[in-house]
Design goal:
The complex is a heterotrimer of chains A (261), B (263) and C (258). Chain A is an all-alpha fold. Chain A contains 10 helices and no strands. Chain A is globular. Chain B has 2 domains: 1-86 and 172-251, Rossmann fold, CATH 3.40.50; 93-169, no CATH class. In chain B, β4 and β5 form a beta hairpin. In chain B, α6 (154-167) runs parallel beside α7. Chain B is globular and about 55 Å long. The N and C termini of chain B lie far apart (39 Å). The model of chain B has no long low-confidence stretch (mean pLDDT 90). By secondary structure, chain C is mainly α. In chain C, α4 (64-92) runs antiparallel to α5 (100-115). Chain C has one domain (63-257): Orthogonal Bundle (MetI-like fold). The termini of chain C are far apart. Chain C is globular, with a radius of gyration of 24 Å. Classes of the chains: A mainly alpha (261), B alpha/beta (263), C mainly alpha (258). The interface between B and C is small, with 8 and 4 residues.
């Protein structure tokens, strides 16, 4: 048979194997955590039963206790994002392979390490250092966002038109001035859009930090659920969903406008 | 020799690229202040290499290139930046920062003339703004000062490129295929601008051109390159079709002229 | 004289900068941001680091089982969520959906799913079905649906509609159009997004245990509560290594796909 005719056959084989392996791993995982078919049938009923306790939501509690906690989560996310933005801008420039081949490798290593930490693990370390509360959360969010923002920012810098950089250098400008006049103006809109997107993600991240005592709405949800105050938990969920949806919408719209300009 | 600035001298200059390609071979060339020189040759003949060696964007493998008797530094640093400050460059693809205003783009030509901290903070002295604006007026787009570069036509963008070079108040202008991305009408306008600037300000001008008829029409002195070697050096008035054939190593075709009637 | 620089849109710029400064100030005060506190507590940080060092590597063997549980949770969550995301993504793609009403409902459903962080789902499921890995697997399933359906519906909207329309024009049903016309075009993206979700899930499953949803996070929580920081360090280091390794593998597969 000609190699051309063989080709599709082989690809199907590959996909079949992959599916088979994934199915086997899946089945094995189910057995390992004792998620039996009997258990599966119970789950929808259990979820429905608990959900039924959620109504009516205790909105009075929502205004008094939940909203301030959500506000705190937003503040944590904001400060964390600002910290990350300030730190990541220079790192993104120096992390661009095309501009600084040698430094870039080092910067990328740092950013990969910072990215690997889930925020909440960083918070576990910051809480004993700066004390229980929102400040620890903001630091954790800030540090862990630096990694991602540096990576994305460096990619933006690597994708720009380098003509103007040479034009600046040909007119006697230094490397630093080339960054200021030829690189930053080109990349800033995309980078700011990444900051905003990261802010959206950080709201979600900061919402869970309360679990380890680092402020925000997560601790409230944990406590209401722990003490079975489901109407109060419902208020937490409703308000969180609404606030996050609004922030997503506003931030998404600003991002689109920035990119278009 | 006069004390006018803007002389260039290549002595036994060679450039071999890392991949082994020869960009410049045993070049000996002297350009006097205020000359308008057109460099011709087929693509890959080393036209860009020649221009970019003058401001150190390409480094020599051996030999020297001097600007006003001073060797062009062959490594990055303050000395090279100082030399570049006096040599304007115009590019085929304009190389503007499209998101910035025309004014900001032209001010890039003043970067080497103001203290670094002022440039960093965008605090330009009135004198430098004035120089930038005069440069724009000289190429006839003073009214576009505050327009975003991306909103200009190709010809206007190249004028901003020229203004940026003029803002350096240079003794030399290097124009690397300045009209290759433009339509014929705009091409002639830009070429006339370059000739006028050369005549009015006495700036030594080196222009790379692919089109033979343009070279003959606008050049004073024509330099022909082939495989990095100087194969022709003479006045535009006396250059013959035979000379062009020799430079290109083949009969020229419609692709080599802008205006097809000229063949 | 140069033409006067046109005045910027002061309302826009002033407003934006004012908002930025005010928001930052308000937030910083609100969370008690203080450099002095940071500086003063650096000694506390030093003590913490001393306590965390050297890591108690003798603790490592006891991590193996929870570690495996973490991976199981991530696998189940990715597979279940990845499968359920398919119809949700298809119905949320403007060019493939069944009707404006379905599209609108599905899209909003998707956006609401996306608003809640992974640990919130974990808390909810832990409350509903009890502490343990099952809650974690369910939470990650929902989280995976949210991630994959959003990304994939966007790339489905960008496919070439020639093939799906051809399937329709020869009398194919809607299902056949999606199955033979649309999904094959989006398959590469789908696989790549599912792998991406798997990376996120591995990372998430490491911390699910903090709220009782199984995996290595449960051990982390008990050691943290007992201030056994030498052990916390071991756990965090091993989490870091695991996350980096799985990310590398997944990323290299994704690179091969595209």
């Amino acid at each position: 048979m000609s190699p051309v005719a063989l080709q599709p056959q082989r690809r199907i084989g590959w996909a079949t194997w992959a599916t088979f392996i994934i199915a086997a791993l899946f089945a094995w995982s189910l057995i390992a955590i004792e998620f039996s078919p009997g258990r599966m049938i119970e789950v929808p009923g259990q979820v429905a039963r608990v959900l039924s306790f959620f109504w009516p939501a205790d909105m009075a509690y929502g205004w008094d206790a939940v909203l301030p906690a959500i506000v705190e989560s937003i503040q944590i996310a904001w400060v964390g994002t600002i910290i990350a933005a300030i730190l990541s801008l220079p790192l993104a420039l120096f992390g661009a392979r095309t501009l600084f081949p040698r430094i870039a490798r080092f910067v990328k290593l740092i950013s990969a390490t910072a990215r690997a930490f889930p925020e909440i693990l960083l918070a576990i370390y910051f809480v004993p250092i700066v004390g229980l509360g929102a400040f620890a959360g903001a630091l954790a969010i800030g540090i862990s966002s630096v990694g991602m923002l540096t990576k994305l920012g460096a990619e933006v810098v690597e994708s720009i038109d380098f003509g103007p950089v040479e034009a600046v250098e040909a007119s006697g400008g230094s490397r630093i001035l080339a960054l200021r006049y030829a690189v930053v103006p080109q990349v800033l809109p995309e980078i700011v859009a990444h900051w905003l997107f990261r802010f959206e993600l950080n709201i979600r991240a900061s919402a869970v930090l309360g679990v380890v005592g680092a402020g925000g709405v997560g601790g409230v949800l944990l406590n209401t659920l722990r003490y079975r105050h489901f109407e109060k938990a419902a208020a937490v969920l409703i308000l969180t969903i609404i606030v996050v949806l609004i922030i997503d919408m506003v931030s998404g719209e600003i991002r689109r406008r920035i990119i278009r300009s | 020799m006069s004390d006018k600035k803007g002389s260039i001298r290549f002595s036994d200059a060679n450039i071999v690229y890392p991949n082994g390609a020869v960009g410049m071979k045993d070049l000996n060339l002297e350009i006097r202040p205020g000359e308008f020189v057109v460099v011709v040759g087929s693509s890959g003949a080393g036209k860009s290499t020649l221009l970019r060696a003058v401001n150190g964007l390409n480094r020599l493998t051996s030999g020297t290139v001097e600007v006003d008797g001073v060797p062009v530094p062959q490594k990055d640093g303050r000395e090279l930046r100082e030399l570049r400050a006096g040599v304007g460059m115009i590019f085929q693809d304009f190389r503007l920062v499209k998101r910035l205003s025309v004014m900001s783009n032209v001010l890039i030509g003043r970067l080497a003339h103001v203290p670094g901290w002022r440039a960093m903070l965008n605090l330009w002295p009135a004198h430098d703004r004035d120089v930038a604006h005069k440069a724009l007026e000289r190429v006839g787009i003073g009214e576009k000062t505050w327009v975003k570069a991306s909103q200009l036509s190709g010809g206007q963008q190249q004028r901003v490129g020229i203004a940026r070079a003029l803002a350096q108040e240079p003794a030399i202008i290097l124009a690397d295929e300045p009209v290759a991305s433009l339509d014929p009408v705009t091409t002639h306008q830009i070429m006339r601008d370059l000739v006028r600037i050369n005549r009015d300000l006495g700036i030594t001008t080196l222009v790379n051109l692919h089109f033979l008829d343009l070279a003959r029409q606008y050049g004073q002195r024509i330099i022909g390159l082939r495989f990095g070697e100087l194969v022709y050096d003479g006045s535009a008035e006396t250059v013959t079709d035979e000379d062009f054939r020799n430079i290109y190593g083949r009969d020229f075709t419609e692709d080599d002229v802008l205006d097809e009637d000229a063949v | 004289m140069p033409p006067v620089k046109p005045a910027r849109n002061w309302w826009l710029w002033g407003g934006a900068i004012g908002f930025l400064v005010a928001m930052t100030w308000w937030s910083a005060v609100g969370i008690g941001f203080s450099m002095t506190e940071l500086a003063c507590n650096i000694t506390g940080g030093g003590r913490l680091l001393q306590e965390s060092w050297p890591p108690d590597f003798g603790f490592l063997p006891r991590l193996v089982d929870p570690f495996m549980e973490t991976i199981y949770i991530a696998i189940i969550g990715t597979v279940v969520g990845g499968i359920l995301a398919i119809p949700i993504a298809v119905l949320a793609a403007r060019n493939l959906t069944l009707g404006p009403l379905v599209w609108f409902a599905d899209r909003n459903f998707m956006n609401v799913l996306r608003t809640l962080p992974d640990l919130f789902w974990a808390m909810l499921f832990a409350t509903a079905v009890g502490f343990g890995p099952v809650a974690g697997a369910l939470a990650l399933s929902v989280f995976t649906i949210a991630v994959v359906s959003k990304l994939w519906s966007e790339s489905l909207e960008a496919i070439d509609m020639g093939l799906p329309e051809a399937v329709r024009s020869v009398g194919g049903t809607w299902l056949q159009m999606v199955q033979f016309g649309a999904i094959p075009q989006g398959l590469q993206h789908y696989v790549s997004y599912v792998l991406y979700a798997f990376e996120l899930n591995v990372r998430a499953s490491m911390v699910l245990g903090l709220v009782g949803a199984g995996g290595i996070g449960m051990i982390l929580e008990t050691q943290r509560a007992n201030f056994e920081y030498e052990r916390v360090t071991v756990i965090i280091l091993s989490v870091l290594v695991a996350v980096l390794v799985i990310e590398q593998i997944s990323e290299s597969i994704r690179k091969k796909l595209t």
